[in-house]
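Subgroup meeting minutes
Present: P.N., E.W., G.H.
Scribe: E.W.

1. P.N. recapped why we're keeping a running log of single-chain structure predictions: easier to compare across weeks, and new members can see raw inputs and outputs side by side.
2. G.H. added today's entry (311 aa).
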Amino acid sequence: MDNVNVELFGRDPKIQKAISVARNVSVTKAPVLIVGETGVGKRTLAKFIHQNSNREEKELQIVDCSLESKEVENLILGYREEDTGRFIKGILELGNAGSVIFANIDCLEDDFQKRLHKILTELDDYDIDVRIISTTTKNLSKLVGSGRFYRGLYTLVSSNSITLTPLRERVGDLEMLARHFLNKFSEDDSNPSVDDTALNKILSHYWTYNVEELKTVIESSVSNNETGILSEDDLAIGEKKAVSLMSDDDNEGIRLMSLKEAEKLLIKKALIHTSENRTQAAKILGVSIRTLRNKINEYRNVGNAYFINLR
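Output recorded in log:
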């Protein structure tokens, strides 16, 4: 696994405090909950915690809890192949003596939250020792208060909580990261720069998907630039862009699926990202609020648990 460059998180005092807490807690076995918007670097910070622990040489296993419920359960606990009868180990076994990341832990099904809590509290009985690191875009304590997240699991995973500030609230870090990606995606022998109009556009843009969106935009802009000086016209921001709605630091992309499945997944991701604000989600998806409401009702009627529990 590549080492995390902690400098790329930024120099903002709130970010530096988050890194300091991550570094201090990494030497313990205590669970950590990392909170922040999509694309802000939650999974990267989770990797940083693992790399700075005494488990660094051991396995780091990751599961995205926003996948379909049965797939998530299989990935965590393991499953037996129907064709061969061979048992495929889950991440709790595979990560024994190492660390396990539960990305988007708020997306776990209600029943499985309780079951997972029981399993995690009994790991010693199975001679399994894992460090639990969880990430979420939501305020889990509010979800607990509204009965939408199991209190026992919340108490277990949140003994140490770290919040990552959105990129748009860190202007200094925004400029630093923009220049970093500009150098990264430019030709090795070039000395790229950005003019004032382009920089102002970068600093004033509302970066919905934070670092991941900035990285995508700079990479695209550099590929279309021929002068070595990035101008406002080179920047494809302020327009609708095909920015991934997958979890931050997801290097595997979107798996093959039917259009119907992809539609449902994108709607679910948009709702998760906006903390279930339907108006904002509809804007991101480019549909009317009525269309989004109809789709939610459609998924409810076929028994999809996430949409049934949607407020």
